[in-house]
Amino acid sequence: MKRQRLIALFVLGFLLFNYPVLSLFSVESVVLGLPVLYLYLFCAWGGFVWLLSRIVDAPEASASPRRGPAVPPTD
Amino acid sequence: MLQGSLILAVALAYLGLLFAVAYYGDRRADAGRSIISTPYVYALSLAVYCTAWTFYGSVGRAASTGLDFLTIYLGPTILAPLWWLIVRKMIRISKQQRITSIADFVASRYGKSAVLGGTVTVVAVVGIVPYIALQLKAISTSFTVASAYPNAAALTSAGGGAVPLVADTALYVALLLALFTVLFGARHLDATERHEGMVAAIALESLVKLVAFLAVGLFVTFGLYEGFGDLFSSAAERADLQALLTLEPSASVFGEWVWLTLLSMLAILFLPRQFQVAVIENVNEQHLKKGIWLFPLYLILINLFVLPIALAGMMYFPDGTVEADMFVLALPLESGQPVLALLVFIGGLSAATAMVIVATTALATMVCNDLVMPVLLRTKALRLQERTRLTGLLLGIRRSSIVGVLLLSFAYARLVEGHYTLVSIGLISFAAVAQFAPAILGGLYWRRGTHAGALWGLLAGFLVWGYTLPLPSLAEAGLLSPTFVEMGPWGWALLRPHALFGLEGLSPVAHGLFWSLLINGGLYVGLSFKTQPTAVEHSQARAFVDALPVSSRAAVWRGQASVTELRQLLQRFLGYRAATQALERFAESQGINTTEPGWEDAVPANAHLMHHAEQLLAGAIGSASAHVVVSSVVNAEPLSLAEVMEILDETQQMMAHSRELQRKKHALEEATQRLQAANAQLQELDRLKDDFISTVTHELRTPLTSIRAFSEIMHDNPDLSAEQRQEFLEVIIKEEERLTRLINQVLDLQKLEAEPMRLQVEPLSLRTIVNEAVQAMSQQMENASVVCTVQPPGPGPGTVEGDRDRLKQVLLNLLSNAFKFCDDTDGRIFVTLRGRANEVQVDVADNGPGIDREARASIFERFQQARPRARAGASGSGLGLTIAQRIILEHDGDIWVSSPPGEGATFSFTVPRAQASTPTDDPGPLGDGASATPDTAGSAGSPITSSDS
C-alpha cells in the first residue's frame, strides 16, 4: 500500500515539476507580491514534501494487523 | 573590510570545532552510544548534496538563466518517494553483503568482479576529482573575495592564475582537509566502513551552511529591501531581470529542464558521497523514513532565497564588477555587514569542506579496496596472500589515496583555473556518475543483467561522456584547438562533440547525457541478453533483486510472540519432549537456570528464540512452511509469491512421496488378494480331492458289490441253471467293464492334471471322427432305441488341427452323456457340424429334460451332479465332461452348454481350422440311424464312453 502511494507520488511530482504544467505558471504577473512561477514552485514543493511526510510516517500496522498478541502472556 | 588573518583565524577555529565534533562522535561510537543514530542527523548528512555549487553557484546560475537552477534540487525531491524502495533496498543489500562503496556495490552485484569494481572506481575518480577541485577553488575564491573586498582587481580576477603556488590558499585548504579526512575518514579499518565522527561533523556543517544562507537571504530580502514584494517589484522594472522570473516558452528550455531533473535524480542516487552517507553510513534503515522528507525540506529552505539574492546582486552590481557566483558574499560586504559576511564565508566553507571530506573518503575507499588492493593481491611477487595482517598496509593505502585524491584535485584546480563556472563542472560530474545508473538500477531490479553488459555499457558510456563533455571543455579552456569542437575531429562533422551524429539543439550536458546513457543502457541490455551469467553472478543477482523480501524474512522477526505460543507450536510439530528439550537448551544458552521453577517466564521471546524455533521446525516441515507457521504466531506478514512457490515445492515433494507410498500399498493389497485367492483355490482343491476320493470309492464299490454278490450266489448255489449262470456272468462282466472304465478315467484325468497334454496334432476331418464315434455308440443306442442323427448330410466342413484320438474321446463323452439323458421312450440325439471361417463347431443335442441355469455353470466340474435323473443303468464317473473340456481347451477351442427351457441340452465345442487347409475329408455318407458296428474296444487312446454325472 505504502509502496503504491509512493510511486503515485513520484509520478505526481514528475508532472508537477515539469513541462507542461510549469508553462501554465510561467506568466509575468505577481500574486501576493511574488512572481507566479516562483510562488507556484515553492508551494508545490512544500505541498509535495508534506504529502511525502504523511505517507512515509503513516503507521504500517493498518495494512497488516498482527495476529499474535503484542505482549507475551506469562503463565 | 575583513582582515585576511581574522578570516583565517575564524576558519581555523571552525575547522577546529569540526575536528572536535568528529572526535567526540568517534569516541561516542566507540563507547557504543552513537550521537548520529537519529533521523535528523541522517537527514542533515544527506544535505552533503548541497556543496559550494549550491551555496555560491546557484545564485550565479539564477542570475544568468533564472529558475532552472532548481532542477538540481527538484530532481532529488521528485525521486524522494522512491527512496523508500530503492535506497532501502541498497541499504539492505549493503548490510548483508558488507558493501563498502558504490564500486563495491556494482562489483558485488555482477559476480564480485574486480574488473568492474576497478572500472567504477576509475569513472568515479575521473568524474569527481574536478568536482572536488571546484570546491577547493570556491574556498580560495571566497577567501580572496572576503579578504580583498572591495579591491576590484581582486574581485574580477578572483582566484586568478597569477597566484604563486605557495600563496594559493587552495593548497593549504587541500592539505588541511586531507588531514581531517585521514583522521576521521580513515582512522581505523572497520568491516562496515562507517565513520560516525565524520558524519557528525558533516551534519553540523549542513546546519551551518543552511543557517548562513538563510541569514544572508533574510538580510537581503528584509534588510536591503522591504520584503519579497519590494524586491521582486524592483527587479520587475528591469527587463533582463523580469526574464529570470519566468521560463522562456520554448522546447529547448523545457527540454533542458527535463534533462537536468533527470540528471539530478540519478546524481542523488549514484554520487559516491551520497551513496556513502545514505547507504554506507546509515545506522538504521528506519531513519530513511524521516530522511526522505526532511532532506527535500532542507532543499526548499536552502533554495528559498537564491532568486532574491541573485536579483539583488544584479541590481547592486549592475556593471558586472562582481562575479554572480560571489553575490552571496559580496552583498553583505557591500552593505557593511562584516559579521554576516564572515558567517557566509563559514557557510560556504562548510558546504565545500563537507563535500570534499565525504567525497574523498568515498573515493579513497574505492581506490584502496577496488583498485589498489586487487592489483596488489594479484601481484604474486608481493606475496600478500601469505601475510596475516594487512591492516597497516590497508590503512597506508587508504591514507595515501586520500592525500592523492586531494592533491590531484588541487592540481586540476590550478590547471583549469578561471575557466569554468561552478555549475558546469558540477553537471559534468553528475553526468559521469549517471553512467552507473543502468548497471545499478538494472542490477537491483533485473536478474538477467550480466557482468559483460554492465562492464561494456559502463565503459562505452564513460567514453562517450568523456568525448562529449570534458573534452570540449578542454577546448574552451584553451588546451585543445577550438576547431575540434566546431568542426569535429579531422573535420568530420558527424563526430562534433557537441552535436554527435548530427544531434543538435540540446545543451551540451543534455546532449552528452543522452548519448552516453543511450549507448551505456543499450549495451547493458543487449549484452546481458547475449551473455550467460556465471553461477556467482546468478546467486548475487538473486541476492540483490530479492533483497527486500528475502531479508525481511531471514534477518528480522520484528514482532513479538509469546514463549507459550512458540512452545505450543513446537509441541505440535515436534512433540512434547522434543519441544521442552529444545526450549531448555535455548534457555541455558541464554544463561537461564532451568532447574528453577518458572524458568520459562525468564526466556525472552525475542527474534533469537523465533529464529531458533523456525530452524527447529524447518527440520521437521521444511523451511518455507516453518517460516509460515512461525509468522502465524508472530505477525501477519503477507506471503510473497516466492514463498508460496517454495511451499508448493515442498508440498509437491511430499505428495510425490505419498503417491509412492500409495502405489506400494496398492501393490501389497494386490499381492494379498492373490494370496487369498490362491489359498481359497487350494482349499477348494482340497475339498474337491476329498469329494473326488469319496465319489470314486463310492463309484468303485457299487460294481464291486454287485460282482461280489453275483459271484457269491454262483459259489453258494452250484446247482444254478446254465442260463442263470450265464446271465449272472454277463452281469459280472459288465460290472467289471464299468469298473475298468472308471479306473481308466480316473487315471486319465490324473494324467491330464499332472502334466501338459501332449497332443499329436495333424490335419483331420471332424466329420470322420464324428462318424467313428457314432458308429462306436450305435450298438448301445440301438439297444435302447435311441436315434442318433448327424447333420448336415454330405461332405464335412473341412479340416481342423487336432489330435485324432483326443477329439474322438471328446465326442464319445458327449454322445454317451446325451445318450444317458435323452428321452426315455423316444430318445433322440442330434449331432450338427458347422464350418466357420476359422473354426469348426460341433453341437451334440439331446431331447432330455435339460439342465437348469445354476447347474450349467458348474457342469464341467468334476463329479457334478447336474441332472437329477439318468437313464437306468447308465451311470458315469462324473469325469467325462471335465476331460472333454480340458481336451478342447488344449486345442485352443471352446466348449459350452446351452439349454433352452423344455428343449433338452446342447453341448457345443469348437476346434480351430488347420492353417493350410488340405482337406483330407472323407465324407462318409451317414444317414439317420446310421448302422453301426458295436463299440467293443473303443478307439485307440482312451476306449471310453463317458457320461455325465
What secondary-structure arrangement, pairings included, does this model have?
The complex is a heterodimer of chains A (75) and B (949).
Chain A lengths: L1 H15 L4 H5 L4 E2 L2 E2 H22 L18
Antiparallel strand pairs in A: 1-2
Helix pairs in contact in A: 1-3
Chain B lengths: L3 H27 L8 H8 L5 H14 L5 H27 L4 H8 L4 H35 L3 H5 L12 H17 L10 H29 L3 H9 L2 H4 L8 H20 L1 H9 L6 H17 L2 H11 L10 H8 L3 H41 L12 H25 L6 H12 L2 H10 L5 H18 L1 H7 L5 H6 L20 H23 L4 H11 L1 H8 L8 H12 L1 H14 L9 H4 L4 H15 L1 H12 L6 H76 L5 H33 L6 E5 H18 L3 E5 L7 E5 H18 L6 E8 L3 E8 L6 H5 L22 H11 L3 E5 L7 E7 L37
Short overview:
With 75 residues, chain A is mostly helical.
General description of the model:
- The complex is a heterodimer of chains A (75) and B (949).
- With 75 residues, chain A is mainly α.
- Chain A has one domain.
- Chain A has three helices and two strands.
- In chain A, 23% of the residues are buried.
- Chain B is mainly alpha-helical and 949 residues long.
- Chain B folds into five domains: 4-414, Up-down Bundle (Amino acid/polyamine transporter I); 435-543, no CATH class; 556-638, no CATH class; 658-731, Orthogonal Bundle (Helix Hairpins); 760-912, Histidine kinase-like ATPase, C-terminal domain (Heat Shock Protein 90), CATH 3.30.565.
- Chain B is elongated, with a radius of gyration of 56 Å.
- Chains A and B meet through helix 1, strand 2 and helix 3 of A and helix 4, helix 10, helix 12, helix 14 and helix 27 of B.
In total, how many beta strands of chain A? 2
> Which regions of chain B contain 5 or more consecutive residues with pLDDT less than 50?
156-161, 550-556, 917-949
Q: What is the highest CATH level, the class of the largest domain in chain B?
A: Mainly Alpha
Low-confidence stretches of chain A: 61-75
Distance between the termini of chain A: 37 Å
H/E topology pattern of chain A: HHEEH
Instruction: Tell me the span between the first and last alpha carbons of chain B.
Output: 147 Å
**In percent terms, what proportion of residues of chain B is strand?**
under 5%
Alpha carbon gyration radius of chain B: 56 Å
List the total number of helices of chain B: 37
Oligomer: heterodimer
Share of helical residues of chain B? 55-70%
Q: Of all protein chain pairs, which has the greatest interface, and how many residues does each chain bring to it? A: A-B, 47 and 52 residues
The proportion of residues in beta strands of chain A is 5-15%
Shape of chain B: elongated
